[in-house]
Amino acid sequence: MITYKMENAWRYYDQGQHDSAIDQLKEILAEEPNYALAHGLLAANLLAKSRIHAAEYEIGIALSLEPEISFLYIVLAKISIAKSKLKPALLHCDKALELDVENYMALLIKNEIYCLLDKRNEGYNCIVEASKIEPESIEVAIAFGEYYLDSGDYSAAHELACAALHADAQDEDANILMGRIQLALGNVEDAEYHAKF
Questions:
Q1: pLDDT tens across 166-182, in order?
Q2: Kindly report the CA angle at 72 between 115 and 11, in degrees rounded to 5?
Q3: What span, in angstroms and rounded, lies between the C-alpha atoms of 61 and 29?
Q4: Sign of torsion over alpha carbons 110, 103, 10, 124
Q5: Contact 112, 150 (CB under 8 A)
Q6: Is residue 13 a contact partner of residue 41, using CB atoms and an 8 Å limit?
Q7: pTM, to two decimals
Q8: pLDDT one-digit tens code per residue, 48-81
Q9: How far apart are CA 163 and CA 54, in angstroms?
């Protein structure tokens, strides 16, 4: 039963239904209070709701229970970004990769941090490394698309945004990317359409 509920919580999280995920995770933790990954996923959902202090509390519990789960350091990195602590965020990503060399999300978060630090070349290298691990990933396509958009290569960015939307027309980040591209091209109506997502 716990496994089924956890699968539901992950699905809610992936679909951006954070309130539903939080409710499901509270049920899980009421039954199994020492479930580290559930605390970590709860922290991720709380962060998505901008409840930073609550997210910090939950990730602290998760790490005290099982400090060797790569995903927990991804959440910790995102919390650090939300608090504008970019150097610690990079270290958390490195720890996530140390625990799981195939954790391509850690590389994409590193790209995000490098962009905030205005180190776009280092960021691009991270996207390339992520693409070697997950070449079909929508997140990787979007990261490349954002890179090309910010570099002024609208054609390449548009191609990648189309590919991401073809893979998942409801993906929030893919719609945001396409909206940004259309806005840059002066297509306000198209940009507004994608912004509604």
A1: 998 888 899 999 999 99
A2: 90
A3: 12
A4: positive
A5: no
A6: yes
A7: 0.90
A8: 999 999 999 999 999 999 999 999 999 999 999 9
A9: 36
